[in-house]
Amino acid sequence: MKATVIVDALTPADAPRCAELEQILFPGDDPWSARAFLDALAWRHPYLAARSAGGAPIGTARSAGGAPISTARSAGGAPISTAREGDLLVGYAGIGFVAGPPDAEAEVHTIGVDPAFQGRGIGRALLRGLLAIADEAHATVFLEVRTDNDVARGLYESEGFAVVGLRRRYYRPSGADAHTMRRDAR
Ligand SMILES: CC(C)(COP(=O)(O)OP(=O)(O)OC[C@H]1O[C@@H](n2cnc3c(N)ncnc32)[C@H](O)[C@@H]1OP(=O)(O)O)[C@@H](O)C(=O)NCCC(=O)NCCS
User: Which of 113, 114, 174 to mutate to test the pocket of ligand 1 (most atoms within 8 A of CB)?
Assistant: First the structure.
């Protein structure tokens, strides 16, 4: 069975599923609760969702070679909602602005993809969605990534980020170190 993945705006109704994925993806690094996602949305931070259209059960999406991904955005750049009942949330990502123009700065808060859907371009599509939002504001973008997370780091480097710092014991309770990465404003 084929599954099309769309990227659109995360909504409060997605918060429990995000928390469920956080438990799977970040077990030792203080996974976010549904409340944390609701708070981020209440602050109007831009958060995106990747949905397997038609609600394909986990594991039945298109096999290697990648799910076709379309990004639903209006001409003005704001995500438009095309989600339908039965769609399955398979990924999420969020960014926050910490400074406005003329020296706009944004921080990637989180990005995660359901393990059953990883390696199909969904993480990159979500990241590009966040970066498009940052670029509209010509913002410099920062993020933290575990020093042992080669997959995520490779993804970030391929999208223009470079390591600019090291934060020891950044993650709790694991105590893992983080690299700070930066992507110049565009
Ligand atoms: C990091 C993460 C979001 C990437 O999402 P994804 O949908 O699997 O990534 P994509 O399929 O878009 O692949 C992006 C790049 O990551 C790398 N990558 C993906 N899967 C990989 C794997 N199994 N092995 C090595 N590299 C891999 C590749 O460089 C790939 O680019 P390419 O396919 O053009 O070569 C996802 O792995 C994830 O949720 N990981 C756990 C949570 C996490 O670590 N989040 C980041 C916290 S900073």
Answer: 113
What is the C-alpha to C-alpha distance for residues 93 and 46, in angstroms, rounded to an integer?
9
Tell the CATH superfamily of the 5-183 domain.
Answer: Gcn5-related N-acetyltransferase (GNAT) (3.40.630.30)
Note the pTM of the prediction, 2 decimals.
0.88
Q: Which residues pair with 105 in a beta bridge?
A: 99, 140
Query: Ligand 1 atom 5: the closest Cα is on which residue?
Result: 123
Model confidence pLDDT, tens digit, residues 87-139: 899 999 999 999 999 999 999 999 999 999 999 999 999 999 999 999 999 99
Tell me, in angstroms, the distance from the centre of ligand 1 to residue 101's CA.
Answer: 31
Instruction: Give the type of residue at 112.
Output: G
